[in-house]
């Protein structure tokens, strides 16, 4: 394989080998992580009311059970992104799996409210590592059909939401919330059990100068897929730049102050701390994409989790705002399980739409059109509607927001270079968690106060701003190769 002077990159190797058995195994592992996160997030709809009833909590204490998870995710998304970019994707998702499983299982044994809050916050810290798994999987996929396979990866989230709704419907009436917490932690346990056979991302290894290790991973991919690697020597985008340019680029100077250090991947790795990574995200070449991405992630999380909460809140609005309406506690609990279960199936058409659009009309147009269509579905809900029409409108809105949520998790890793990919997505995800922390005030607080019009109006504003932000993204990533460095990304954009 060593023709002198002939080289190939990770993207060229993956394109030649195609998507095969090896990527299927990577998909199954990363998908299990997505199932774990979805189940831990969806159980918040069921555990809060059950714990409030058993322990006599106030409404503020009940909402705190949800808020601390998002607060933990805010910290975890940023932290694990930095760990993953500096020490490897495998290290990143190992720590997240340990946090999520151990804290999730121990939550089921919590003796009091204070310990439950601490443990659920730690679960959130672990769940913040979700972008690490998505970036890891992304870096094994050939560029030509990357969008379609990332949509398939996102289907594991929907599988997790439907599984959690089904589990809650079966477990809660018979065994209670502690069993639900314990059983929901098991997908994270599976991540730990199979961690030993997971490969490191060859793209990450190349950026750290470990091309021999990257080549061994690619050889394993070739054997498993029954394919062959390109002839020549494996190189990274960074090494190609060094061959083409004698002087250090602006990107290299930003990563390491001294010229000769730019030649050493190890030195570059040691320079990449959390603060410097954030500075790179806000550097002139990336600041526009970064700030717009933060807006979209905030709007997506605010809208997605808000719609999950609105599903039950709007259906029970008459019992809260009309004193003559009476519903038994058991009836309300049953309706809650049923409503969340039914509306979770709206995510399947959302995934189909994502798969149909993402590699055909592109990421930007797909996201913006679905944001604006979501606004149309929600507008009639500014006024009280019949129960059936409310369900239909929320179902349609859930389809749209699932589509945008799916595609933004494809687009976000594609716009950042490998050296800061998981940090960039992690920070954006952290901003999204702020939206998740705020949305209960709008979706629950205002509805409880019988301010449905104001609640829906605020959702409309956030979704409209998110769709508009998408239109201002500087470039489309459909069919583009992933870049390893900022300047290499600029070269690809210039070609377009």
Automatic annotation (TrEMBL):
**Where is this protein primarily located?**
membrane
Q: List the transmembrane segments.
A: 63-81, 93-111, 117-138, 150-171, 177-198, 291-310, 340-358, 365-383, 389-412, 424-447, 453-473
**Keyword Cell membrane assigned:** no
For this protein, the record's Pfam families field holds: Sugar_tr
Query: What membrane topology was assigned to this protein in its record?
Result: Multi-pass membrane protein
- Enumerate the UniProt keywords alphabetically: Membrane, Transmembrane, Transmembrane helix, Transport
Q: Which domain of life is it from?
A: Eukaryota
Chain ranges of the Major facilitator superfamily (MFS) profile domain: 26-478
Q: State any single GO MF term.
A: transmembrane transporter activity
Subcellular localization: Membrane
InterPro entries, per the entry: MFS_dom, MFS_sugar_transport-like, MFS_trans_sf, Sugar_transporter_CS
What's a GO cellular component annotated to this UniProt protein? membrane
PANTHER family referenced in this protein's UniProt entry, alphabetically: MAJOR FACILITATOR-TYPE TRANSPORTER HXNZ-RELATED, SYNAPTIC VESICLE GLYCOPROTEIN 2
Question: In its UniProt entry, what is this protein called?
Answer: General substrate transporter
Q: Which organism is it from?
A: Macleaya cordata
